[in-house]
Amino acid sequence: MDPPLTEKDKSNTSIKSTKDGSSSKPTSKAGSRAGSAKSSKKGAGDEKKENIPPPSNDMKDNPAADMRNMRRIIAEDPDWSLMTVPLLWEICIQFIVNNFENNSDILKDLLSKHKLKVLERISTDLPLKVTANLIQDEGYWKRCCKARWQICDVSKYGGSWKRMYFERNLQHIIEHFVPENSDATELNETLPLSANYIKTLDIKQLLPPVKEAPKGLDAIDDMSDTGSDAGDGPETDHFDFAQVLPKLPNLEEFRLTYGVKDCGMNFEWNLFQFTQRDCLLLAKTVATCKNLRTFQLHRSKLDDDKVRVLISHLLDHPSLTELDLSHNKIDDRGARAVGKLLNGHSQLVSLNLCDNQIRSAGAQAIAHALTKNTTLHSLNIRLNRLGDEGGQPICRALLKNTTLNELNLGSNDLTEPTAALMAQVVIQNSTLKEVDLSCNRLGPDGGKQLQEGMEENSTITKMDLRLTECGQESEYCINQILNRNQETEREMLLNQKNAKR
C-alpha cells in the first residue's frame, strides 16, 4: 500500500501535469500543421498529374519518346539517348537509297509517301540506264539539272525538267564529240534512253577531227604563216548527224552552227569550215526527219553551192515551217534556190536570210516567188545588198501577195524610189502588220510619201524608220497613225474575245 502523499508531492504532481498539458497542446498543433501541409502537398501533386499532356502519336509509334515509361539511364556516352534511335521505316528507306542502283525496281512497290522520301534522297549521279524510264518525278530531274548546270531556264523546254536534262545532256555529248577520236559508246547508250524526251536540239559547236602536229619548228611556222591565217587549210569533216537524228522521232526543232567556241590561242580557220560532205550528209539527214518544224543553220559559211544542195533535199519536206539561214554567205545563186523553195514547193511560214550577200538578182527571184506563195507569213532580208533594184521588185510582189504579215528590209541601201513603192503597198496591201525599213536612206521625200500612204492604212501596227532620214515630222505623223491602228486592233481582239464568251 502506497504511503499517503505529502503537500510537497501534490504540488510536484500538479506542476508535472500542468507541464504535460502545456506540452501536449503544441504537439497537437504541430501535428495539425503537418497534416494540413501534407494534405496541401498531396493536392499540388494531384494538380500536377492532371496537367500532364496525353501521349502524342509519336509517343505511340516510338515508346522511347514517352519519358513516363523510361527509366533514367546514366550511360558512359553522354550523347547517348533512346530518342536518336531511327524508326524502322527510316532505316529501310535509307537502305533502299544506298542500294538503289542495284535494286531500283523496288520503287514501284513502295507507298506514295515512302516513294517521295526515296526520290528526295537518291543521288543525281545515278546512270541514265537506271533512272531514264523509271523516274518520272520532276523534282528529281530538277535536282539533276541544278546539280549540273548553273543556269536552268525550264521555260525554254516546255516547263519539263526531265526534257531539259535529256536535251542538254545529248547536246553536250555531240558538242564535245571529236570524229575519229571519241568513243561512241556513250552516245550509243544515251540515244535510246533519250529518244522519247527530245523535241529540240541546239548544237552551238562542232569539233573537227584532231590533226597530228607537224614535226619540227619550221613546219609549224610554215603552217601558221600560210594555211591557218589564210583560211585555205585542208578541209575536215565534222560530226555525222545521220547516227542521231533518225533515232529521235519527236524532234521538232534543230539548230546548228559549224564552228568552235572558246578556241582561244588554238584558233585556226579550218575549225570553222563547213565542207561539201558535211552539207550533203546534213541535207540527207534533215530530209528524213518528217516531224521537223524548225531548222536553223547559221554562222556556218553556207555558200551558194551548199545552199543549193540543202534546198534540193528540203523541197518537198512535209512539216518544215521555219527556215533560218542567217549570217552566212548566200549570194544570188543561193537566193534563186530559196525562191524555188518558196514557189509552191514547201509549207514555210517563216524565212530568215539576214546578213548574207544577196543582191538585186537574188531579190528578184525571191520577189517572183512571193507573188505565187500562199503560206509565208514572215520574211527577213535584213543586212543584205538589195539596193533599189532589189527592193522595188519585192514591193511590187507585195501588191499581189496576200499572206505576208512581217517584212524586214533594214540595212539594204534602199532610197526614195523604194519608199515610193512601199507607200503604194501600205495603201493596197491589207495583210502587212509589221514593216522594218531602218538604216536605209529614204530621205525626206520618201518619208512624206510613206506618211501619205499610211494615212490610208488601218492594218500596220509597227513600222521601224530609225536612221532613215525621213524627217521628224513624217516620223511623228506615222507614229500617230501606228498608235491609232494598234488601238483599233486591240478593240477588235477584245470584241472577238467577248463574242466567244
Automatic annotation (TrEMBL):
Keyword field contains Cytoplasm: yes
Principal place of residence: cytoplasm
Presence of keyword Cytoplasm: yes
InterPro entries tied to this protein: DRC5, Leu-rich_rpt, LRR_dom_sf
Comp. bias (Low complexity): 28-38
Lineage: superkingdom: Eukaryota
Annotated region described as Disordered, given as residue ranges: 1-64
Compositional bias ranges of the Basic and acidic residues kind: 1-11
Alphabetized UniProt keyword annotations: Cytoplasm, Cytoskeleton
Positions with biased composition (Polar residues): 12-27
One GO CC annotation: cytoskeleton
Protein localization: Cytoplasm, Cytoskeleton
SMART domains per the UniProt record, alphabetical: LRR_RI (SM00368)
Name of the protein in its database record: T-complex-associated testis-expressed protein 1
Organism: Owenia fusiformis (Polychaete worm)
